[in-house]
Amino acid sequence: VERQENIYLSLVSITGDYLGPAAERFIDRQISNHLEKEPQTITKKDVGILLDWLRGSVSLLTDNENMVEEYIGQLKQLSGGKQTPSAKRH
Amino acid sequence: MPSIKLSPMRWFAILFVLLCVLSLALPPDPQALKTFHITPTGYRLVIVFLLIPEALLWYASFYAFAKLHEYASFIKGSKEHSALQRISLGMGVLAFGLIIPSIIALPLNYIAAHHEGFRATAAILNHYFSLLVALISFSLLRGGSQRLVGSGITIRRGSLLGMRLFAIFFIVLAVFYSYTTLHTRRFSGNPYYMGVFPLMVTIIIPYLYAWFEGMVSAYNLRLYSKHVKGLLYKQAFLQLSFGLVITIIGFIFVQFITSTLGARTDKSLGYILVLIYILLAILIAGLGLMAWGTRKLKRIEEV
Predict the structure, then answer these.
(1) pTM score, two decimals?
(2) What residue in B sits closest to A62 (Cα-Cα)?
(3) H or E segment to which residue B3 belongs
(4) Chains A, B: CB pairs < 8 Å
(5) Chain B within 8 Å of A62 (Cβ-Cβ)?
(6) Cα–Cα nearest to B7, from B139, B135, B95
(7) Residues 29-48 of A with CB under 8 A from B
(8) What is residue B140's predicted lDDT score, i.e. its pLDDT?
(9) pLDDT of A86 higher than 60
């Protein structure tokens, strides 16, 4: 449970660099709507599934694709996947 | 604004129609016709020309209020909710406070035009209504911005130079406003219908206090937008806060002009109109920016 909470907190923290005080609400909404889970119970595997939804949602907020890729790259690391080369550059 | 069942934009539509009907239906003040050397038809034309940009300003302020109100409702339960709610309430008082005193002034001025003894009462009431709007709205905006600054983000206070510039600007504004008001009272037929002491205590000092509150809220908003985390949030909040800062400063100048120059009847109508148009344009730009920033913030809560 502690590890799940850490994943949730890391997810909020990374998102906080882009969405500031709105990050927690944003993540809670994404998890509840797309995974139909309690936000704090998110696992590494779930983060992988959520990535595409998060990419789509953040792309609606900015035209800066590099920023979106940078964000997704950081989340990929969290899910245990590799960071994309474009994300590493930024 | 409490317990409004109607949306802000519907309120705007109702109040605007009421104002148009009153403006065009009530006969013009004979003294105003004499002062500005115009016919009753010319007077009504001037009213229409004045109403167009003013309607744009009222629309922009109600629109900005509606957007802020929607956004504040969207983030219920968050740390920023009470702050944003208070700011939206302050904006609401400003929006309603722009149009309602104009509506109240019309019948008051009409009665004053036909009952000379009522002219002083009408002028004093008009001044106090505008002052009340400034006091309530700027106090709410200051309270909201203060809450925002204390909503859990790390903020380094502004530099000493910044504080000094702020103090110097306010002192210059205060001295210039006091001088202009007292000068207008003495050399332009005392349009305030008050003695020096009541004018200072019930108009000058409260206005300066309201403007100080307004300027502190502008300062707080800049401080918050500078230190808040989140690249996308910050971009949107910067637009909102920059728009609000322009709006607050613009309103201070509008109140400054209307309570000093606007009260004088010895200035030409064209001169006053140009000044009013410039200020209205600045205010509309500020309100537009504010609404745009709020829309972006709301978008973050929608996706």
Answers:
(1) 0.85
(2) B232
(3) none
(4) 55
(5) yes
(6) B95
(7) none
(8) 96
(9) no
Side-chain-facing half-sphere of B135: CA atoms under 13 Å:
13
Which two structure tokens, joined as six digits, stand for B196? 């020096």
pLDDT at B271 over 90: no
Read off the pLDDT band of A90 (50, 70, 90): very low
Residues present in chain A in total? 90
List CB contacts (< 8 A) between A60 and chain B.
299, 303
**Ordered DSSP codes for B263-276:** T-SSS-HHHHHHHH
Mutate to test the interface with B, among A15, A18, A27, A63 (most CBs of B within 10 A): A18
The two tokens of residue A73 are: 């790259």
Point out the least confidently predicted range of A75-89, B57-71, B285-299.
Answer: A75-89
B81, B155, B233: best mutation site toward chain A, by most A Cβ within 10 Å?
B233
* pLDDT at residue A87, as a whole number: 45
**Distance from the B230 Cα atom to the nearest Cα atom in chain A, whole angstroms:** 4
The token pair that represents B189 in the structure block: 């037929």
**CA atoms lying within 13 Å on the CB side of residue A22:** 26
Residue B208 tokens, joined: 């300066």
Q: Looking at CA atoms only, how far is residue B4 from chain A in angstroms?
A: 28
